[in-house]
């Protein structure tokens, strides 16, 4: 390991510091899950091509709920077949080793952190979780487990039986995926925004993994770390705004590499010997 990185991690370890990990699509890409933000996320409704930023909206769900569900069921199928990688397992090890001194903030909805053994109470899914659904009319804030919809391909039609399975058990209206849409705002009730910000405000190390911080809440977390002058380590195969920020900080370091490749050694250095 690079000497300066080892020194930063050792300082956090010996101070029994608090660690916040912030993860994004990059760690899941190593498990074969595409971002669905680019061309692979295109979806045809009627005679039009829609971008993921148009599909994943409340507006689209209001207009074409069955089509939005068909798109999600295709995506969720990809997530279900993916397996957690060494990066997810390393973060789960850190969670168990540090206990309440650890918090994970993830932008990923694929459930791979939990499947690797992350503790739900110490994980903020700030963009939601594909394993859950809730009432689209918010007749209740309750979450229900995602119903088993069988194997789905891009051409699988949406049937009346699918509609019945995706009905709210309280009011009979549509269930929606428990994910944050592009035309919606972060909140505490569903997306644990305040919990994530509070964790960043008390952390001694921000470990950023596989995200470029394109959305608002992750970049706020980076701002908090920068203002507080805590240690910050960015793990990413590519250059990104978090790496630039880490490099501008006294206790910052940018690791060029994948999560599966680099996180296990970083976690070993942070865990009490
Ligand atoms: Zn309802």
Structure notes:
The protein is an alpha/beta fold and about 270 residues long. It folds into 2 domains: about 5-35 and about 85-125 and about 190-270, TPP-binding domain (Rossmann fold, 3-Layer(aba) Sandwich); about 35-80 and about 130-180, SIR2/SIRT2 'Small Domain' (2-Layer Sandwich), CATH 3.30.1600.10. It is about 40% helix and about 20% strand. It is built from 13 helices and 11 strands. The protein has helices at about 5-15, 25-30, 50-55, 60-65, 65-80, 85-100, 110-115, 160-165, 190, 195-200, 215-230, 240-245, 260-270; strands spanning about 20-25, 45, 50, 100-105, 125, 130-135, 145, 175-180, 205-210, 230-235, 250-255. The strands form 3 sheets. A 6-stranded parallel sheet has the order 5-4-1-9-10-11, with helices on both faces. A 3-stranded antiparallel sheet has the order 7-6-8, with helices on one face. β4 (about 100-105), α7 and β5 (about 125) form a beta-alpha-beta unit. The chain is elongated, with a radius of gyration of 19 Å. The two termini are about 15 Å apart. The model has no long low-confidence stretch (mean pLDDT about 95). Bound molecules: zinc ion. Zinc ion (ZN) binds next to loops. The site of zinc ion has 8 residues, from loops.
